[in-house]
């Protein structure tokens, strides 16, 4: 029952004030969300890339309720791209976007989200990098995949995310494992009903391996979104079996979680991309990540203790 409680807290101004004022909060937030502004996060971009890592950058923001807020989200990403341009990092610093931020849930949301995200994707391509469309709850996926397909007509490198715990994903993976595709596979973090998603960890893990094998044996570019040491080892074996070179797939992990593993994989020659979120709405972002799957609370707590 933690999920509804945490979600309610994420919407409470009183809880926001209390949690924001707690001495431990800044330490926790800084560990996972390294800045509120572009100026604040650019030193992290330089630090990570200097250490041989790559990034996918997420400007946090949720509860978009007006077209003006969706346009502001678009403009925030365009500002990020403009600031990345002189760094000449190319695809070493890409972007991740949630279409809900671009107005997907508003009236006429599919067309609105497409119209807002297109200039971001085109601007990213102009500086030699890419955008990946994050997956949200299952009710949004048909729209996300349709937007992904439309964007790829002009910017083929546009990526998307698929979630192993959904029953539909094995079929989606077979469709997406084509030449030129970029697909990030994650386990899935939203609370989904048993009618559409596996509920047990061992079932999700088995589905993850089946789907990853499909991606590795396909002609696209797999992106392994996981912190699980066992799945990382399996991914390496699947890549070897499929005859993939080290630059023909990549690992992705969240900023602040298993940071030593980021460096280890990069040192071994793997492409290792760090999912780096920043922005002023860190409270909503952080609390909703916990609400989507309360087990994340234990995961983040363990990460704080291990510092790696």
From TrEMBL:
Annotated pathway: Amino-acid degradation; L-proline degradation into L-glutamate; L-glutamate from L-proline: step 1/2
Nucleotide-binding listed as a keyword: yes
Cofactor: FAD
Superkingdom of the source species: Bacteria
Domain Proline dehydrogenase residue range list: 45-301
EC number: 1.5.5.2
Name of protein: proline dehydrogenase
Organism listed in the record: Streptomyces labedae
């Amino acid at each position: 029952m933690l999920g509804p409680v945490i979600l309610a807290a994420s919407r409470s101004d009183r809880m926001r004030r209390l949690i924001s004022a707690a001495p431990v909060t800044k330490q926790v937030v800084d560990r996972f969300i390294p800045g509120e502004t572009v100026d604040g996060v650019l030193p992290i971009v330089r630090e990570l890339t200097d250490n041989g890592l790559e990034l996918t950058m997420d400007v946090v923001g949720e509860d978009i309720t007006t077209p003006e807020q969706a346009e502001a989200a678009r403009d925030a990403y365009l500002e990020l791209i403009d600031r990345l341009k002189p760094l000449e990092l190319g695809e070493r610093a890409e972007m991740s976007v949630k279409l809900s931020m671009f107005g997907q849930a508003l009236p006429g949301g599919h067309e609105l989200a497409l119209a807002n995200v297109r200039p971001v994707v085109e601007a990213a391509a102009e500086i030699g990098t890419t955008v990946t469309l994050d997956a949200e709850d299952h009710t949004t996926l048909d729209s996300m995949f349709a937007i992904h397909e439309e964007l790829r007509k002009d910017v083929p490198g546009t990526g998307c995310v698929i979630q192993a715990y959904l029953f539909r994903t094995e079929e989606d993976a077979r469709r997406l494992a084509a030449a030129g595709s970029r697909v990030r596979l994650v386990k899935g973090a939203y609370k989904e009903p048993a009618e559409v998603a596996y509920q047990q960890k061992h079932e999700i893990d088995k589905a993850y391996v089946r789907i990853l094998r499909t991606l590795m044996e396909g002609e696209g570019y797999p992106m392994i979104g996981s912190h699980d040491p066992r799945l990382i080892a399996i991914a390496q074996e699947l890549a070897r079996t499929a005859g993939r070179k080290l630059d023909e797939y990549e690992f992705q992990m969240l900023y602040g979680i298993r940071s030593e593993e980021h460096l280890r994989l990069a040192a071994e020659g793997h492409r290792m991309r760090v999912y780096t979120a920043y922005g002023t709405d860190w409270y909503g972002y952080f609390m909703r990540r916990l609400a989507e799957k309360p087990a994340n609370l234990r995961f983040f707590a363990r990460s704080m203790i291990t510092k790696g």
